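FAQ
Q: What does a multi-component entry look like?
A: The components come first, one per line:
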Amino acid sequence: NAGVTQTPKFRVLKTGQSMTLLCAQDMNHEYMYWYRQDPGMGLRLIHYSVGEGTTAKGEVPDGYNVSRLKKQNFLLGLESAAPSQTSVYFCASSYQGSGREIDQPQHFGDGTRLSIL
Amino acid sequence: EDQVTQSPEALRLQEGESSSLNCSYTVSGLRGLFWYRQDPGKGPEFLFTLYSAGEEKEKERLKATLTKKESFLHITAPKPEDSATYLCAVQAHGGSQGNLIFGKGTKLSVKP
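Then the predicted structure of the entire assembly, as tokens:
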């Protein structure tokens, strides 16, 4: 049972280059999320999706785009990478609860470490 | 503004020395509070969810409690393998589904 798988695990880019980070989950979760984690900042939500074909902005969406064409995959794109986007990127997924427990825990991948020179 | 503050930033314990980590939150209305453990180079690993004041959850040497303003993660007789960063996150009423607000974490080191 793989859970949440992120590829690649490491990447170095030059300023202005583009790339796509892939997240795949095998738990049939409806919701998927992209976060970035920076020293001293905590985890911050970039974009999220509540279902196939839907996406929404989080706290820090500028400079990123996302797509959710299949339920199990959530892609994060950087169109023109900037040094400020050097970070560790985490993908997470969760299922929708009900009633009082509508907010179910998010399950995280092990991250993509991205450096932009 | 919704906010989560964790203290202390770092905590060093001897093996067997019990202690508590604090998570104070300011939100418009709490829907859920989550505790995670994060090991170096890994993603956060879910530990507990608490939904209402007075609720408690336990798992091995860890016990999480919740009041209307804060949550505590109590560690009883810790072992070196409990060393990790512990993250607290809240889901607020009025927030979009899954929009968690994370604290900056407490880095716990347990020495043998």
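Q: Is there any commentary attached?
A: Sometimes. For this entry: The first strand of chain B starts at residue 3 and ends at 7.
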